[in-house]
Specification:
Length: 148
Amino acid sequence: MLDRDLAEIYGVKATRLREQVKRNKIRFPNNFMFQLNLKEAELMVSQNAIPSIQHLGGTMPYAFSEHGILMLANILKSEKAIKMSILIIELFIKLRETLLTHKDVLLKLQALEKVIDSHDQSIYEIYAFIKQMMQKDETPRKRIGFKE
C-alpha cells in the first residue's frame, strides 16, 4: 500500500507518516517498505492508479508490505493507527487463507486436466477405430468355399 493511502487510513498527514518512517528507517528493511522511483510512479499514472505525478505532492511515495504496515502502526502509536493495523492484518490473513484455498482448488483442477487430456486422447483413438470399422471396404472380396 502507498504511504498516502495509509496516512488516510491512520488519520495522519502523509508528510507526518513519511517523517516517522525516516526517523525509524532501521525498522523498515526492503521487504517491509521501499520508495518508488520516478519510472514506477509514471507507470502508476499511466495505469490510472494515481491521477498525476503532481498528486504525489512533490515526493516519491513509499510502498509498504503487510509487515511494513504493522511496523508503521507501531511507530505512529495513535489509537486509530492501532485499530486500523489490526483490521488490515486481519484482512491480509483472510486474503492469504483465500489464496491458499484457491491454490488447492487450482492444483486439483490441474490434476483433473491431466486426466481429461489422457481421456480425450483415448476417446479420440476409440472414435477413430470405430470410424475405421464402419467404413465399407470398396474392393470386392475373393469368394471362398464351394465354387461352380
